[in-house]
Structures are given as structure tokens and as C-alpha cells.
Amino acid sequence: MTVEGRVLVRMKGISKHFPGVQALRKVDFELREGEVHVLLGENGAGKSTLIKILSGAYRRDEGEIFINGKRVDIENPRQAMELGIATIYQEFSLIPFLTAAENVFLGREFSTRYGLIDWNRMYREARRFMDSVGLKVSEKRKVAQLSVAEKQLLEIAKALSLNSRVIIFDEPTATLSGEEVKHLFSIVRSLKKEGRGIIYISHRLEEIEEVGDRCTVLRDGEYIGTVDVKGVKRSDLIEMIAGRTVDLSKKFIPKSPGKVVFKVNGLKTTDRKVSKVSLDVREGEILGIAGLVGSGRTEAMKGVVGAEKVIEGEIILNDTPIENRHPWDALKKGIVYLSEDRKSEGLVLKMNIRHNITLSSLDAVIERGFLSTKKEQGVASEYIKNLKIKCPNDKVKADSLSGGNQQKVLVARALACKSKVLIFDEPTRGIDVAAKEEIYAILRQLAEMGHAVIMISSEIPELLRCCNRIAVMREGEVVAVLSGNEASSEGILHYALGGVAV
């Protein structure tokens, strides 16, 4: 059903150019009151650029913006805030060492008649807005002590304190658990009932179908179309996003894996998040690791490569026990871990693509004690071509790439190390449906080349599509290992939630 509320935001013919890139080309967008309007598109389609123009982070080159029917020029974030526009980015704009209340009213502190901060009123008002979004922590708690979900709720409370009529959510569920997602959706629905306009950016189509009213699709910086969520098929949306048909039913049919090349027995880490992990991976196999948030999936694999301290257990590579005190030790032995947080723990964002690709394999590009630009360029060019990394050249900085292409740069670095065991932690987090398919194809290709691949994922459907076997973790232990034939969403959840073998 089409939303018929008053138009809150209208953007007409918006264009934006960056050096070497036309990010937006005459894009139109409209948001109505009481509407959740989903902004869709591949990484690099222009979604972030469009919302940054609306929120004042970027200036448009061409086009017009109307707020409540009045033409405006949004020159900076403060002006956007005064116009009733709030943006909740994936990277929160909170000050870690200030309290929750101080963050809510930062730059708008209440004062007494003597010119001092009125702390009692600030705590009281912050509590009111925090209660409205179900944030139960103390208003005096430091933000650094909050969980990701609590920080997100605090950002929403801050937006409400500004009386924002337009709230932009940028990939809000990327790091939330199932229950936290449900709570967020209930808040989004409440905001909608209050007549606020919600711009919602997500790559998860199932979320869009649950909370969205309309979708606008961008592709390569251009406006493709706007459709009602309830009247469009998922396959049609995917085709609009990708510009081609994407087969979501294709499942990896692996050849018979070879011998066991990597094994973990009784692994335990000092942080107590991993207490008893045993698993093995074969040559040419993709082993999935499933489990709820907090099950110890990431911590176990960080323990394997030396990023978490191991106090018990055995790691065996090619029948030989090994010890990794540091990720560099693992790398030299042919085991590489690709973090779920590619921006903080993976890429050097201000470094160019070429240097990022060769960063962990410098020995291969050094000649007579000096870095060989020719060799380094050769290595980078090979992987850019083979992995189809979309970039103007290998000299552009990693932070200029889309999420999917950043992920491919990390894969290129791992391959440049000639690693035998590759551990991918949430390899498709924050990337669009078409880019996901490309990552799946790369994982399959690695397995077919004889690599042993471990894939940690919160998305059960992608584990079922890609993996030979799936190990299910709960409370720091592997509680079940399911083969491709016997694995199912229901079976994985059964074990992840505490069920026993039947």
C-alpha cells in the first residue's frame, strides 16, 4: 500500500562529483511523513553520498533540496540538525568518555541562572528520552562502557531530543543480535506512527520486507526507480539493484575434500569466551562456523592465529603441532584470518590498494633490500584483475572503495601470502546482494584450488549455500558438526539455542 503522508523531504536532480568518480548523476528522492523509505543499491551505488548531502556532510554540485516544501541549502551537519534531520551512521558519532546524558545534549547543555551546567535537569531529560527507546542503562554511564546495541539506542534518543522529523538509519542491524534487531524494528515502527520520516539503508532484503513502505534503488550513481515494498518481488528488486539477474538458488556442490590439513583440539582462551573447541578442515573444503552472538566463534579463530591468548589445546597444521603467539606467526605458517571489522582490523584505509594487497607479503616484492615498485604493481594488478576489484587504478586509497571491493582487497592480501588455510569472519557483512555472490564465488574458487577455507557467518542461509560442513558453537564450545546434506536452518538453530542431539 502506498504511503500518502505529507512530503517531508524532496531531492531533485542531485549530482555529486569526486576526483575520478561521478558519485551521483541527477538523482531524485522523496520521503513522506509516517514512512519508512528504504534506500537500496550495491556498494558504490551512491546511497551514502546521497544521505551525506541531505545530512550536510557533503555539498551537492547540482540539484535542489526541499524540506517541508521549502527550498533549502544544507551547508553543514548543524544546519541539517536545525532542519530536523538526524543521521545514525554505522560508525556512531558519540564521545566515548562522556556520559550518556552528556552525549545526548552535547553542545546543547542546560544551564542554571548562574551560567553553570544544570546537571540535574540534563540527567532528568536524558532519562526521559532514553526511556522512550527502552535504553535501561544509567544516564551517568560512560559511552565507552555501552554495548553496540546500547550505543545505537542512545543515538536514537539523541535524535529524539533534537525533535528530528527525519531520521536516517545507515545499516542499523549490521552488528546486532536477533533480539536487538526486533527491538530496533519496534522503535522504527513507533517513530513511523509518530509521523516521522525514516530513511533506512540496508542490504538485507528480509529486513526491508519487514519494516519498509517504499524502496528507491540507485545503481552506479543513477536513479533506477521507486517501488512499493508490498507490491514487488524480491527477484525484481535484486535485478533493479544489480542490473542483471542474480541466481540466489545456486548452491556450492563441492568435489570430495582431500586430507585433513588443519585441526584444533580442545582450544581454550584466557578470556573464557572459548572453553572447548575442536574441529578440523580438509583440503578443498569450506567449513562454516555458526552460532549466536557471544558463542565464541570469532574469539576461537582469533585464538587460532594468536590474536587471543590460548591457555589450553592443540593446533595442528599438516600433522604438525604449531603455536601461534601472534598473527604474524600464523601468517608465516600459511594461516590467515580476515577480520569481520575490515575497516579497523583489516585494511589501512588511508593507504592505497597496491600497498594494502602486498602489506603482508613484502618479501615477495623486495629486490636487493628495496621495495620493487614494478614487482608490487605486478602483484596488485594480478589480483585486481582476477578478483575483479572495481577501482580506477591501484593508487587510489582503500577508503574510496565500496564495501564489497574493500573485502576483495583483503582477500587479495591473503592470497598474496600464499596461505593454505583461510579464515573468513563475516565476509559479506555490510555488502550488497550482488557483491555477496562475487564473494561466494571467490570462496568456492579457493576451495576448488585446494585451500582449506573456514567461514564464520551470522547468516545461516549463506552457510547452507557455501559450506561442505557447518560447526555450530554455543557458549565457547563446538556442540555439533553438520554435513551439507543434514544441515538445515532449523537444525543449526536447534543446537545454537541449547538443543541436544536427537
- Give the DSSP E fraction (strand runs of 2 or more residues): 25-35%
Broad structural category: alpha/beta
Number of strands: 22
Distance between the termini: 45 Å
Major sheet summary line: 6 strands, mixed
Mean pLDDT reading: 86
Cα-based radius of gyration, to the nearest Å: 24 Å
Unreliable residue runs: none
Main β-sheet, spatial strand arrangement: 6-7-8-3-9-10
* Share of residues in helices: 25-40%
Helix count from the secondary structure assignment: 17
> What would the principal axes of the Cα set say about the shape?
globular
Task: Walk me through the structure.
- With 502 residues, the protein is of the alpha/beta class.
- Helix content is 33%, strand content 26%.
- It is built from 17 helices and 22 strands.
- It has helices at residues 47-54, 77-82, 100-104, 119-132, 148-161, 178-193, 205-211, 234-242, 297-305, 327-333, 342-346, 353-358, 373-386, 403-416, 433-448, 460-466, 489-496; strands spanning 7-18, 21-32, 36-40, 62-67, 70-72, 85-88, 166-170, 197-201, 214-219, 222-228, 260-269, 277-282, 286-291, 310-317, 320-322, 335-338, 366-367, 370-371, 421-425, 452-456, 469-474, 477-483.
- The strands form five sheets. A six-stranded mixed β-sheet has the order 6-7-8-3-9-10, with helices on both faces.
- Helix 4 (119-132) crosses helix 5 (148-161) and helix 13 (373-386) crosses helix 14 (403-416).
- The radius of gyration is 24 Å and the shape is globular.
- The mean pLDDT is 86.
